[in-house]
Design goal:
heterodimer, A: 743 residues, alpha+beta, 4 domains, six-stranded mixed beta barrel, elongated, B: 105 residues, mainly alpha, Arc Repressor Mutant, subunit A, 10% strand
């Protein structure tokens, strides 16, 4: 580097001086010459004459200080020039026309409010998937997948193997199942939702009890050993009046005594996205809570699992670890795990979010279009108003205001309008964010989303508001500033016309508005067509008049003998009630929310491929099921009253299954084994139907007599000859008179 | 005047009063970055605490470089610095772990 002046600038100085030239346009014009001269001189002096001249890096580091310097001058300039003055002027102009302002603000408030409301719901599902749990962004759902099927449950042995693999990527792995329970406190029974959980669940979630303790590893020592439970804050307040002495009290869960050991913190609903539980019971008490022993069968998936990622572990690393475990499971237990992948998924994919998020995303797209229509509406209003202000604008131009200055002024007015609309929309959202449960269709699940206006929702509203201001403000502002001075000043009447350009713009806005409205209209039309198609699709059952109600016999001490006898008695009486034409029981009613179950199966004489997973969807049904729902039998017979526990096991299969596993679909008289319970004979083939969704492809389906394999949780399906509404009370009375169950 | 001066501003005024008249000299004396020093110099001049003048262009031309901008304290700046230094006098030396008080050194 040259130390004497005339030798010319060094390369690093050249770079620094180039930066000065590049940055100069950012500096306000009135400061620019002084700014440029000062930086050039100081950099030059520093590079050539200053004692102890800095290195190239140090010189450039110093040179970069010119950017904040330029930014400070620019902001200062804006503050002086525009903001305060323009905002004050804009507010005055809007207040002078209260009618216009009210219409514009209301239009924007509805648009911004609708968008922010939908976003607040999406936010509650996706960004706060497990309420009242710190660091829930480090929680991931673990799900099995096989072929095209995903979100498959864990069996308990599979869970234990994943947990005990102790992968360093996972700080902890827990599992749970949501179950309907009969809770009896004193003499009052109540149907509530609870979760059977692994005892480490609270530890993995890092949740401490607000009162007493949570579950701990010792609660999972041995099956049936630890009859304890943790209750939710809601239940504690509702049923125990927030009694601080509640720990140690005994309650009956499905007739078994459990001791309350703690109360969960307020807002905690368990790990399942959007579905609230009121009690948490240890996994080892499973047999007292849900039928059967589910702790041994590796093929019986019924648990949802999740993990907390170890600090610093990314989703990709977690997936790689999950792949390793899945490979190990497939190697150790090929019968149940061959070909199964283990997927690391976001927490919202287990629970209500998995159903609602895709729907809400589409709705957000629709309300964004509505906001765009609102924007064009307001833009039209602004344009009309600008026509009325042509004289004012012309005067300002004549007095020397630049067009840029005018555009800035008009944009500020649009921003003030948008800010008022955005603020009103946000206020609206405070109320509307809580109405999600009210707009959902009735579901037999405890749907719960704690949507609120938090910082993310606030930022979203702010972004939408700013975008709105730009969309509806920019075009009218540019158009207004283009008006000609002389004609506007000479002719006051010109104020109403607005010139050819302005007219074209107004027409353009109308076209845009109609186009957007058309998009919405076509979208709505397509939705209607889809709905019409859906109602035209043959669901496979003919029943059109009737109702169903869920029964829960778990509180009634029914066993494998008394349960089926009770069902027979119940069906006899219900069918005798006036207005009832047929009645039946089933564990799963087609096309209702809740999904079916699947079971592993073996089919006599059928050799599955090496990679073929032999699992079948099924429903347990009573006699009269096919007649009640109007499902035609293609061959053989349906489930009948004679299919009792004493008789050989019988099943009915659907057409798809018959064709899939037996030559020519000749299944009647053939045998299969479901769930390892011994050979059952196929007694009939039912017509195919839709089971989970109206658009699903044909699938294998199995009907098992509930009179041979007792299940205490069934739905009573009633087909009526007339209006179902009139029959419901008498059926309700019959059920209440007969059983100690809850409906 | 009225407004209290920040530590950074006091440091800049102090550096100028100590004979550092150019932007980079002031940075070296205070340890502050150029992004802090230059805007502060503009602000202080606007408030009347500093006065700037450009170097005689003939000298600069002779040395083949642009004219530099010199900064000097105004009377108001000198008063403000005096008040600020008086206020900061209340910062008495304290015991710090592993260090001795300057007075005990």
């Amino acid at each position: 580097m040259s130390r004497s002046g005339p030798a010319g600038p060094s390369p690093s100085l050249r770079v620094a001086l180039a930066l000065v030239a590049l940055t100069a346009p950012l500096v306000p014009r009135r400061h620019r010459p002084r700014w440029r001269d000062q930086w050039r001189a100081d950099l030059w002096y520093q590079a050539t004459a200053a004692p102890g001249a800095p290195s190239t890096t140090a010189l450039l580091a110093r040179a970069f200080g010119m950017l904040p310097h330029a930014a400070v001058l620019r902001v200062h300039d804006w503050r002086n020039l525009m903001l305060l003055h323009d905002v004050r002027y804009a507010v005055r102009a809007l207040v002078r026309r209260p009618g216009f302002t009210a219409v514009a603000v209301l239009t924007l408030a509805l648009g911004v409010g609708a968008n922010t409301t939908i976003f607040s719901w999406i936010d509650a599902m996706a960004f706060d998937p497990v309420p009242a749990v710190e660091g829930d962004d480090r929680l991931v759902a673990l799900q099995f997948a096989q072929g095209a099927r995903d979100n498959l449950s864990f069996s308990y042995p599979n869970y234990v193997d994943v947990r005990d693999a102790r992968l360093p990527e996972f700080a902890g792995v827990a599992a749970y199942d949501l179950v309907a329970l009969n809770l009896r406190i004193g003499d009052e029974p109540e149907r509530i939702w609870g979760q059977v959980v692994t005892a480490n669940l609270f530890e993995v979630l890092e949740v401490r009890g607000a009162l007493g303790r949570t579950l701990q590893m010792s609660d999972d020592r041995a099956p049936g050993a630890s009859a304890v439970l943790v209750i939710s804050d809601t239940l504690w307040r509702r049923r125990f009046a927030a009694d601080p002495q509640v720990v140690g009290r005994t309650v009956l869960v499905n007739s078994a005594p459990f001791t309350i050991v703690g109360v969960a913190p307020p807002g905690f609903i368990g790990p399942m996205n959007g579905l609230a539980a009121d009690v948490w019971l240890p996994m080892m008490m499973q047999a007292a809570i849900v039928p059967g022993d589910r702790l041994q069968a590796r093929g019986h998936g019924w648990l949802q699992a999740f993990a907390r990622l170890a600090p610093g572990v990314s989703g990709r690393e977690a997936q790689a670890a999950a792949d390793v475990v899945a490979a190990r499971l497939a190697q150790d237990h090929p019968g149940t795990n061959e070909g199964r992948r283990l997927l690391v998924a976001p927490m919202w994919s287990d629970g209500a979010g998995s159903v609602l998020l895709p729907v809400l995303t589409v709705v957000l797209g629709v309300v964004a279009l509505v906001l765009l229509i609102a924007c064009t509406n307001v833009a039209g209003l602004l344009l009309a108003r600008a026509s009325g202000r042509r004289r004012e604008i012309a005067v300002r131009l004549a007095l020397g205001a630049s067009r840029g200055r005018l555009v800035r002024q008009l944009l500020t007015e649009a921003s003030v309008l948008a800010a008022a609309g955005g603020a009103a929309g946000l206020l609206l959202t405070i109320w509307t964010s809580r109405i999600l449960p009210a707009v959902l269709p009735p579901m037999p699940f405890p749907v719960h989303f704690a949507a609120s206006v938090n910082w993310r929702v606030f930022l979203f509203a702010l972004g939408v508001t700013l975008a709105t201001a730009l969309v509806f403000g920019l075009v009218p502002a540019l158009a207004a500033s283009r008006s000609s001075v002389v004609p506007s000043l000479k002719d006051g009447a010109g104020a109403a016309g607005g010139g050819r350009g302005s007219t074209r713009l107004r027409k353009g806005l109308v076209v845009a508005q109609v186009a957007l409205a058309m998009v919405l209209l076509v979208g709505a039309g397509l939705f209607l067509r889809t709905l019409q198609h859906a109602s035209d699709v043959d669901p496979g059952f003919g029943a059109r008049q009737g109702f169903f109600a869920r029964l829960d016999l778990q509180a009634g001490d029914y066993d494998d003998d008394s349960g089926p006898a009770f069902y027979r008695d119940l069906l006899d009486r219900v069918e005798g009630a006036p207005g009832v034409s047929r009645a039946a029981l089933a564990t799963y009613v087609p096309l209702t929310v809740g999904g079916g179950s699947d079971t592993s199966a073996r089919i006599e004489g059928y050799e599955p491929d090496e990679r073929e997973q032999m699992t079948l969807y099924y429903s347990m049904v009573s006699s009269g099921y096919f007649e009640t729902l109007g499902i035609p039998l293609v061959r053989g017979r349906g489930i009948e009253a004679r299919d009792t526990a004493e008789q050989p096991l019988a099943v009915v299969v659907n057409e798809t299954m018959a064709k899939r596993y037996w030559t020519d679909g000749d299944a009647v008289g053939k045998r299969l084994d479901y769930g390892g319970g011994g050979w059952a004979t196929v007694v009939g083939i039912a017509r195919d139907g839709k089971y989970n969704a109206i658009n699903e492809p044909p699938r294998n389906y199995l009907y098992i007599p509930v009179s041979q394999v007792f299940r205490p949780d069934v739905a009573l399906i009633v087909r009526t000859s007339g209006d179902p509404g009139g029959v419901v009370p008498s059926v309700q009375q019959t059920v209440r008179a007969l059983c100690r169950c809850t409906t | 005047m009225g407004q209290r001066l920040s530590f950074g501003t006091v440091a800049i005024l102090h550096a100028i009063a100590s004979g550092n008249e150019f932007g980079f000299d002031i940075m070296d004396a205070t340890g502050l970055t150029s992004g802090t020093v230059y805007p502060a110099l503009d602000r202080l001049e606007e408030r009347g605490l500093l006065r700037s003048r450009w170097e005689d262009p003939r000298i600069a031309r002779r040395e083949g470089r642009p004219s530099r901008r010199y900064f000097k304290l105004t009377a108001a700046g000198a008063t403000a610095l005096g008040v600020a230094l008086e206020r900061h006098k209340s910062l008495r030396p304290v015991d710090l772990p592993g260090r001795r008080r300057p007075s005990e050194a």
